[in-house]
Design brief:
heterodimer; A: 401 residues; alpha/beta; Rossmann fold; 4-stranded parallel beta sheet; 18 helices; 10% strand; globular; B: 373 residues; 52% helix; 12% strand
């Protein structure tokens, strides 16, 4: 990965976060999905823990296979999301880099990333006999509409009541507004950082972004998160100003669609660097940067704005909007092509991807490729197959002038 | 007794085309699951339930990965091959991630309109009610645009009564099967349910009325054979049920989304349509695709096994169906605690050779017989 001084700070931040989550006796722990409105949880001094983030850590540190196998031995089919299986496995074995996650007092889950999380969190709720609060964010087949925003806002109010009941104290709305401000500051900085990749050569790659996404997932809404991204922004902006590229030579600039392949980060870093190809932007990393959809509802009311941002998740969009968004990124980041990861574990991202590839190519005139893999399960990854496809794709691209 | 049902499903799309031509109503293809058929019928449409078909699934390979379930792949293959050419529009619900995206795939590939019923997942009643009222308004508007006919209160009432009666007759058939296992061959039973996907309700109802009377009059089978409850999303492929007949085993009840979970729904109350549809979605039998913690699938399945005096549960699992697969380990564990034998059979709609199914079901039946000795 690009040598960034901020990396050390991030490791420190994440280590402290996991230590606090594992050891705190005062603050209760809740398990959340990555797209859940954590601001409400932080407003009540609850420590949010993200099984998705932890599952990714397990895979990135090459510890996922044993955990997947443990879940499968317990009856969970290989057909289900590998994040969920990794999570069930860490729970059974107390495995992974942090030695397992602390047990939850309650769960908060949102459907903006998939409906699969309902099933996953239902299983956790059953096991731990804890309540699950669901924020239902309907899929936007035809863009955002007033009724869907109202529905989401109403559920936020229900969530406030749920938290007050669970914690036996009134919900702190003033604190919520403060947390939302910090969350917005952090996501704003994150977006500014990702936008720096418009510079040629790009000062950071999407592989860097995948690593540095951890705090925006787990700590958004906190002061250390804002401070961290300020630090990272300054460092990356400095590199951009001095024209320091993330890879030694940039002949190709491409987009990555879908989740990272967490257990192959180093491999892809070397693979792309050797081929002078920079991964410049990624729909996954952008998901925490407050995507603006074309039919956005403008609002200055903070709770409503929050609802809009949790609904406007790339994989919660209909395909017309997805195509428009991908075409915009290809244009704005001056890309030479795009890579789509057909991810066995993620249906919302992957089902329909073959058709999307063709349509985006047609609209932009840029080549795209689909590779078959999985975000967390190394056993379904075929290096030979992926390399053949990527090499053919690289050959089909017109390099930068 | 079952000829008319078998005839209706022998070539379902010939059946549909024939009735469409006679009725002059636009065919609305209803995707899995729980779209209230009464709404389509009241709007002057001819609802036809589509749960996939086993042949030529590979036609969808250019658009859907092999890790998508065979239901989704075969549905797309049917449309791509023109088999469902008579379908004028499709009705989708937000049942699972794959079907949500499948609607988008249809919208990109085909010119046919799609109507979407977004099933709210929140459990807060007031919030759900407010959202559902706009969802229903939109669904009715979209249906009216397809059929060109406004949905009147009277039409809704008549359609609700018709479908309510059909489901109540189906429940009767389920009851008779529980009380007199083997009264219908397993393959015949599912032919009866499947015929209802394709026949117009006006034609299906009298067939069911007659069948109920005939089954009531039929004498119970002598002797006790292994009794199974089947659980899964879809009871397809129907060809597999000959295996149970050959093995002298009786499916005494099921927990299929397109079987009992659909039949269990009461008549749709139309005076307060929002309340009626809420009840329609959540009442009856729990489903792995409908989040509703108030109705626990574990207690429900245990109770079902006991009520049917069944010997075991066979999980009829269509590969790559995540909602079904997620629930299974804990459900199996609960059955184990209750001393109810269970095993999982991995299925695919494209399976047409049922030898391995037979071997596995046979082993399970022998195990059950062994327990009884």
């Amino acid at each position: 990965m690009t040598q960034l001084a901020a990396f050390k700070k991030m490791k420190e931040l994440m280590t402290l976060y996991y230590i606090e989550a594992k050891t705190s006796t005062e603050k209760p722990v809740a398990w959340l999905t990555s797209g859940a409105p954590v601001e409400f949880v932080y407003a009540m001094d609850v420590i949010p823990v993200y099984p998705e983030n932890y599952a990714a850590m397990c895979a990135a540190s090459h510890q996922s296979v044993a955990l997947l196998e443990a879940a499968e031995a317990a009856g969970f089919s290989q057909d289900i999301c590998a994040y969920a299986r990794t999570d069930f496995g860490q729970d059974l074995l107390r495995g992974g880099p942090a030695g397992g996650l602390p047990p939850p007092r309650f769960l908060v889950c949102s459907t903006n990333i998939c409906k699969t999380v309902i099933k996953w969190f239902e299983a956790v709720a059953r096991k731990y006999r804890v309540p699950l609060f669901l924020v239902d964010t309907p899929f936007l087949h035809d863009g955002l509409s007033r009724d869907v925003v109202d529905y989401t806002v109403a559920q936020f109010r229900d969530l406030e009541r749920f938290l007050a009941e669970q914690l036996k104290r009134p919900f702190d709305r003033d604190r919520l507004l403060e947390v939302i401000r910090m969350s917005r500051d952090a996501t704003g900085l994150w977006r500014k950082i990702l936008d720096l990749a418009k510079t040629m050569p790009t000062p950071l790659t999407s592989l860097d972004a995948f690593i540095h996404v951890a705090p925006i997932v787990t700590l958004r809404g906190t002061r250390p998160c804002v401070d961290y991204y300020q630090l990272l922004y300054e460092e990356v902006a400095e590199r951009a100003a001095r024209n320091i590229g993330a890879i030694p030579e940039e002949r190709y600039r491409v987009l990555w669609d879908n989740l990272p392949i967490w257990f192959k980060m180093r491999y892809f870093e070397k693979f792309f660097e050797a081929r002078k190809c920079a991964l410049v932007t990624a729909t996954y990393a952008n998901s925490w940067g407050g995507i603006t959809a074309s039919q956005d509802i403008q609002t200055s009311e903070p709770i409503e704005a929050l609802a809009v941002s949790y609904l406007n998740i790339y994989i919660n969009f209909g395909f017309e909007e997805r195509i428009r968004y991908l075409a915009r990124l290809i244009d704005e980041f001056a890309l030479t092509g795009f890579i789509m990861h057909s991810n066995r574990s993620c249906k919302p991202y992957s089902v329909g991807m073959y058709g999307l590839r063709g349509e985006v190519s047609k609209r932009t005139g840029k080549p795209g490729v689909v590779i078959e893999a999985d975000q967390n399960d190394p056993r379904v990854f075929s290096e030979a197959q992926v390399e053949t496809r990527l090499d053919a794709f690289l050959e089909s691209m017109t390099p930068l002038p | 007794m079952f000829a008319a049902f078998h005839e209706a499903i022998s070539d379902p799309f010939v059946t549909v085309r024939t009735h469409r031509d006679r009725l002059g109503r636009p065919v609305i293809g209803v995707m899995p699951a729980y779209f209230p058929l009464e709404l389509i019928h009241a709007a002057g449409g001819y609802p036809v339930q589509l749960w996939g078909a086993g042949d030529s699934i590979e036609h969808a390979d250019a658009y859907l990965q092999s890790y998508c379930c065979s239901v989704a792949r075969s549905l797309l293959a049917l449309e791509m091959r023109g088999i469902t050419g008579m379908v004028a529009a499709y009705a989708f619900t937000s049942l699972c991630d794959t079907l949500v995206n499948l609607r988008e795939v249809y919208r990109r590939l085909f010119a046919k309109p799609t109507v979407g019923f977004s099933i709210p997942a929140t459990q807060t009643r007031e919030t759900r009610k407010a959202y559902l009222s706009t969802v229903i308004e939109n669904v009715l508007r979209e249906l009216e645009a397809v059929t060109g006919r406004a949905v009147s209160r009277e039409a809704l009432r008549a359609s609700a009564a018709l479908y309510g009666r059909i489901r109540s007759l189906q429940r009767e058939i389920y009851r008779i099967r529980r009380q007199k296992p083997g009264v219908a061959k397993n393959g015949d039973f599912y032919a009866v349910i499947k015929a209802g996907f394709f026949l117009p309700p006006e034609d299906y109802r009298p067939l069911l009325e007659r069948l109920v009377a005939e089954l009531e009059a039929a004498p119970p089978k002598a002797g006790r054979r292994p009794r199974l409850v089947l659980s899964g999303m879809v009871f397809e492929p129907v060809g597999a049920y000959a295996v149970f007949d050959d093995l002298q085993a009786d499916v005494v009840d099921d927990d299929f989304a397109n079987g009992w979970r659909s039949a269990a729904k009461g008549a749709l109350q139309v005076d307060d349509l929002v309340a009626g549809i809420t009840d329609y979605v959540y009442s009856g039998a729990p489903c792995c695709c409908i989040y509703h913690p108030e109705s626990d699938r574990h207690a429900y399945l245990v109770e079902k096994v006991k009520a049917a005096d069944a010997d075991g549960v066979l999980f009829w699992s269509i590969r790559f169906c995540e909602p079904d697969a997620f629930d299974r380990p804990q459900l199996a564990e609960r059955l184990k605690q209750e001393g109810i034998p269970a095993f999982t059979l991995e299925m695919d709609l494209a399976v047409s050779n049922f030898e391995s199914v037979k071997t596995r079901v046979e082993a399970f039946c022998e195990m059950i017989r062994g327990l009884e000795v």
